[in-house]
Amino acid sequence: MKVLSVDDDIAMTELTAMLLQTHGFHVLTANSARDAIQIVREKQPHAVILDLMMPDMDGRQVCRTIREFSNVPIIILSALNDPETVASALDSGADDYLVKPVPSDVLAAHLNRLIKRTGKLSMSPEKIANSWIPASASMPTTPLETM
After folding, report:
1. For residues 71 and 118, what is the distance between their CA atoms, to the nearest angstrom?
2. Helix (H, G, I), strand (E, B) or coil at 35
3. Residue 31: which residues within 8 A CB-CB, separation 6 or more?
4. How far apart are the C-alpha atoms of 59 and 94, rounded to whole Å?
5. N or C end: fewer C-beta atoms under 10 angstroms in the chain?
6. DSSP code for 9
7. Selecting from 3.40.50.2300, 2.60.120.580, 3.90.79.10, 3.30.420.130, what CATH number does the domain 2-122 have?
8. Could you report the per-residue pLDDT of 111-139, keeping only the tens digit for each?
9. How far is residue 31's CA from residue 8's CA, in Å, rounded to a whole number?
10. Residue 120: what pLDDT?
11. pLDDT-derived band of residue 61, with 50, 70 and 90 as boundaries?
12. By percentage, how much of the chain surpasses pLDDT 90?
């Protein structure tokens, strides 16, 4: 799975890449908002890990910009943990918000959950072509029982 790690701190993106690689992720890195947006457009990662405090564009604006052309899962990874900031980031299009520092196992679990939930691990074209619903299959006509 291809993940983009975005942080203006080069050491942070390198550390994130190293840790996520041990969990089987292929990690792309960007150290500016402009580079991050370009990489999302061109490389189409399965998920984005984004810091809020970027020098060239606020992370919330990066989320809004990415949302104009992509539904890629975005996890904010930030040192900021006040409720207004978290709510604002989620309202800007982020799918999840984690506060630094976060164990790599937890970050990997959040990434896997988001990628699976959003269908970024969809079947390959070969599997889609080879899967079928028999003509005799039918949809249930009775409503499901309520609990």
Report:
1. 8
2. helix
3. 6, 7, 8, 9, 10, 13
4. 10
5. C
6. -
7. 3.40.50.2300
8. 999 999 987 543 334 433 443 434 444 44
9. 4
10. 54
11. very high
12. 78
Q: How far is the C-alpha of 32 from the C-alpha of 103, rounded, in Å?
A: 24
CA distance linking residue 105 with residue 13, whole number of Å = 16
Show the tokens assigned to 34: 């402009």
The pLDDT mean for the chain works out to: 86
Tell me the one-letter amino acid at 102: V
Q: Which two tokens stand for residue 42?
A: 């061109």
Q: For the packed helices 59-67 and 33-43, what is the interaxial angle rounded to 10 degrees?
A: 30
Tokens representing 39 are 């990489």
Q: Quick check: 94 and 58 in contact, CB under 8 A? A: no
The structure's pTM equals: 0.80
Please state the rounded mean pLDDT for residues 21-50: 97
HEC secondary structure over 63-117:
HHHHHCCCCCCEEEEECCCCHHHHHHHHHCCCCEEEECCCCHHHHHHHHHHHHHH
| Domain residue ranges in the chain | 2-122
pLDDT for the residue 119: 78
